[in-house]
Design a protein that fits this description.
The protein has about 160 residues and is mainly α. It has six helices and no strands. Helix 4 runs parallel beside helix 6 and helix 5 runs antiparallel to helix 6. The N and C termini lie far apart (about 75 Å). The model has no long low-confidence stretch (mean pLDDT about 80).
Length: about 160
């Protein structure tokens, strides 16, 4: 607190003001305008630290995401989000095409093709990366959503 008081007192003294002295507003304006305040032009900073171009920033995104998803809790969180996202998409497709009664067969064929292609893509890889695992989680949620909707319709 004492440091802040001394700093403010010093800056007030520069303008001819002191916390104990009384100065009129006119003399303060004259002293403030005649003081040596320099106006410096704005200059662009040209540091060589970090990427500057958009391409450089885009190139760093894979490394940043790879480091972000190293944590098992984040991987599990996004795996669950992918699972629930697939469930939501399946419920939406089933509801929209089932309620209209139009193009049910085409929607079912597209759902089966999507599921089979994802399964083939996932199991043909020798090494499963995290985005491919997320795609498989989406597929599992999608299939689960279609089964649940089929049970709802059967009852």
């Amino acid at each position: 607190m004492a440091l802040a008081m001394t700093i403010s007192s010093v800056s007030l003294v520069n303008y001819g003001l002191h916390p104990t002295s009384k100065v009129s507003y006119r003399s303060f304006v004259r002293r403030a305008s005649s003081s040596s305040l320099r106006v410096r032009p704005i200059q662009a900073v040209q540091d060589s630290q970090g990427p500057r171009r958009l391409v450089d920033i885009i190139r760093t995104v894979p490394d940043i995401s790879r480091n972000y998803f190293k944590s098992p809790s984040r991987r599990a969180l996004f795996g669950g989000i992918a699972l629930l996202g697939g469930f939501y998409v399946a419920q939406t497709i089933s509801l929209s095409f089932g309620a209209l009664g139009v193009n049910d067969v085409i929607a079912a064929v597209l759902c089966v093709i999507l599921t089979e292609f994802t399964t083939k893509f996932y199991y043909s890889r020798s090494k499963v990366t995290f985005p491919i695992a997320l795609l498989n989680n989406f597929k599992m949620g999608f299939t689960y959503g279609l089964f649940i909707d089929a049970f709802k319709l059967a009852s």
